[in-house]
Design goal:
Chain B: This is Spore coat associated protein CotJA. The complex is a heterotrimer of chains A (189), B (72) and C (87). Chain A has 189 residues and is an all-alpha fold. Chain A contains 9 helices and no strands. In chain A, helix 3 runs antiparallel to helix 4, helix 3 runs antiparallel to helix 7 and helix 7 packs antiparallel against helix 8. In chain C, helix 1 runs antiparallel to helix 2. The chains are: A mainly alpha (189), B alpha+beta (72), C mainly alpha (87). The structure holds fe (ii) ion.
Chain lengths: 189, 72, 87
């Protein structure tokens, strides 16, 4: 089971009242390479992977939920005090007419989240390579969002999330080596 | 540090392309691509600094900023 | 939790976030390096430290976790705000 903690993994601060940024951030909330897809991908794959890497998938999957909460916090802070007029000016009127300022799992273009974002081949190597690619894609998405954002505090949190993708990719690469059983050879010879 | 993890290329520009050339296109090649299996006992940041950087180990730190902004 | 949080709350929170972050990093590292003895030692040391910080925060600001992972005040204070995305 999971236990919630009343604490963000990293402090989220937003300097400017710029709801347009929420439109970009939603990509990492309900998009193909977003935090929800990541969490569900890893926590689903762990049932059909060798025991040696189940712990890693469980722990990275769990951390992804902490990242999802950070993204939600950014969007919440950017939209909670916005009037309908401000949301319209920010280009999120189409979101507003369906959801008001409620969060919804869709990407920046408004495409709803779908289970087909969550790859699961059942082959450990194929799945781990999928995970490595997913981490690099998430890293790239954070770069494109940072390129679009001029909010220094928001960018600070986004840089934290981008760096986490680098570490996750590293660990998945190591998991591949473990399944190749290269690691033990290196230690003993 | 960030410059060595940043690569670029120049896309072909045709005289018939409608927009002026962007010049260089940039992409990241972060440290995880070069590390292999992480060795034991790598130097660490202090806890506060680790949180701020997003990693416990300086060897993985890769600061990112908009490369197109910097150029202007 | 009181309705407006003092500056001190944010400092305590960052203290916990820093220690917990080391624990997250070491967790993922140890998942692929289970034989690294000094990393295990460091992990256990930080696990102890996080318990102390958790206790200090909870004595002032209420439970951080529930389902019995924290003690409750009287009346039940788990559902008192503000929540992490609000602060
Ligand atoms: Fe990730």
């Amino acid at each position: 089971m999971w236990v919630y903690e009343k604490k963000l993994q990293y402090p989220v601060k937003v300097t400017s009242c710029n709801p347009t940024l929420a439109k970009y951030l939603i990509e990492q909330y309900g998009g193909a390479d977003g935090e929800l897809a990541a969490a569900l991908r890893y926590l689903n794959q762990r049932y059909t992977i060798p025991d040696k890497v189940i712990g890693l998938l469980t722990d990275i999957g769990t951390e992804e939920f902490a990242h999802l909460e950070m993204i939600a916090t950014m969007i919440y802070k950017l939209t909670k005090d916005a009037t309908p007029e401000q949301l319209k000016a920010a280009g999120i009127a189409d979101h507003y007419v369906n959801h008001d300022s409620a969060l919804f799992y869709h990407n920046a273009a408004g495409v709803p989240f779908t289970a087909s974002y969550i790859a699961a081949k059942g082959d450990p190597i194929a799945d781990l390579y999928e995970d490595i690619a997913a981490e690099e894609k998430a890293r790239a998405t954070y770069q494109w969002i940072i390129n679009m954002s001029d909010d220094p505090d928001l960018n600070d949190s986004l840089r934290f999330l981008r760096e986490r993708e680098i570490i996750h990719s590293q660990r998945f690469r190591e998991a591949v080596e473990i399944l190749k059983e290269e690691r033990d050879r290196k230690i003993f010879f | 540090m960030s410059s060595s993890n940043q690569k670029s290329y120049v896309p072909y520009h045709s005289p018939y392309d409608p927009c002026p050339p962007i010049g260089k296109k940039y992409y990241s090649t972060p440290p995880n691509l070069y590390m292999g299996f992480q060795p034991y006992n790598l130097p660490q940041y202090s806890p506060k600094e680790a949180l701020q950087k997003g990693t416990l180990w300086p060897a993985f730190y890769d600061y990112y900023e908009n490369p197109y902004e910097r150029r202007r | 939790m009181p309705s407006t949080l003092p500056e001190e709350f944010y400092q305590w929170m960052e203290e916990l976030q820093a220690v917990d972050f080391v624990l997250v990093e070491l967790t993922l590292y140890l998942d692929t390096h289970p034989q690294d003895q000094s990393a295990v030692q460091q992990f256990n040391q930080f696990a102890k430290q996080r318990k102390q910080i958790k206790r200090a925060i909870e004595s002032k600001y209420g439970p951080l976790q529930q389902y019995g992972n924290s003690y409750s005040g009287m009346p039940w204070n788990w559902s008192d705000g503000p929540w992490p995305w609000q602060v």
